[in-house]
Amino acid sequence: MAETEPTTNGGSAGGGIGAILAAGDRDFLVRNSGEQVKISSIEASPVALYFSASWCPPCRRFTPKLIELYKELASQGKSFEVVFVSGDQDEEAFNSYFGKMPWLAVPFSDSEGREGLDGRFKVSGIPHLVILDAKTGEVYTEDGVEFVSEYGVEAYPFTPERINELKEQEKAEKDNQTIQSVLGTSTRNYLISNKGDKVPISELEGKYVGLCFVVGGYGPVDEFTAVLAKIYEKLKEAGEKFEVVAVSLDSDESSFNESFAKMPWLAIPQGDKMCEKLVRYFELRSLPTLVLIGTDGKTLNTNVADIIEEHGFEAWEGFPFSSEKLEILAEKAKAKAASQTLESLLISGDLDFVIGKDGTKVPVSELVGKTVLLYFSAKWCGPCRAFLPTLVMEYNKIKAKHSDFEIVFISSDRDQSSFDEFFSEMPWLALPLEDDRKAFLKKTFRIRGIPSLVAIGPTGQTVSRDAKAHLRIHGADAFPFTEERLEELQKELDEKAKGWPEKLKHSLHEEHELVLLRRGTYGCDGCEEMGSTWSYRCDECDFDLHPKCALAEEKKGEEEDGKAAEEAPAGYVCEGDVCRKA
Q1: Does the keyword Acyltransferase apply (predicted)?
Q2: Maximum separation of any 2 CA atoms in the chain, in Å
């Protein structure tokens, strides 16, 4: 990879576009027709360098957006050019991908030129879009993907001044927000029903409006909208002035139509650019999300989905989710949690058992009085497979000392054979694969990702919703996962820390000394496991080591002092227990 001076936003890339794109004897770019275009003939400015590849899914999703922007700017007579810098691994893939693009490209045969541009702009991930002034080489932005996705043609000419202007406009829009400015555009003043009717946005004025961001076929959203639909109907019956508007993130109309057909409320038309704008406007971070707009058109809450997920259908009693109403819901939830038992979690009608390895039914009553971990996991999940050996090891350690302990596997596998194969590696119990209790437990504990471990104490009360973190940090010593036990471990660790050196050097981070600091939860850059409370850290480099990892090397160094270290082969760098290509 070519070594050149790095560029920064607003800085110079070192000469105009000709100096940047020319390489060796090559003074041309190519079109997908095979035509060669002299670099010196490019008059358009700005020019975007598009680092992309056909094998990259995010690239394939972004390319149509860039094509749409390119054609729209051309139709408006605005000066703009794109140069494709391919990361494809063979010419056939390059030709197939480039064949869909209306712009220029660095020839695939010029691998040195492509690698040189990668190095010049320090491309570490794709898609990556660098936009610069063709005459001076000044880099307007290296965040072109973000700006094209968020602002589209409005971002043109992509200068820092234009982006700042757009951000100021958005700020002004928020300060003067109305329901019309949130939902409408200069060419559309209506929403649609799932019957195809156009409903004027003006009919929503004076109402509470929930903006529900949806993706068809996405389980958590489908489950949430099913509950929201019941709340919606209940609030309508109660005479509340409430409406919901679906904001679709679906990429195709058929998927949107299929999911929208089940919704009793309105929607912004699928594919409307306002949907993408609202993602940015409300800084969407997760799904499901329900933004609540007040009767005056101002935002009351950027996400009440968490409240609805926590309280279920009963959340309707907290509408419109004011602090007073939320206090009432919180008191009800507290009372419900206080009455929780293991039976209330694991028994539903005739389903009063869990199963062992051979399918033997084990009555839930045999687990009452024990500490029980609910293990949400699946064979198809890589992190679950990686975590399982650790969990089995710590389970066996705990069971050797405490008979009042058990784990129940709650599978998200998609077929019986996968369930059976994964469960065969586990020495504990499980719920059957096709079991109605699984959905209830996932909803109760708001399981958003796997693997997850929820600890239920001997009284049936929840003692930890993140027992996985405690196990990874403390191992079997974390049992019984109560706050009192974790405080004991904290005190023991604090006592040990008094004997540790305040600073040390380590081969994994030779640039600076590592300083012993009290920390929250962190990831160890040595063993790549979770850590907590104490770390040997370099703030400047955001580097952490478990004390056991940092101090183990000191001990090893003393034992092996004087021994010659074997060097890694050329082209490799060895860090910890892994040797990687440099």
Answers
A1: no
A2: 83
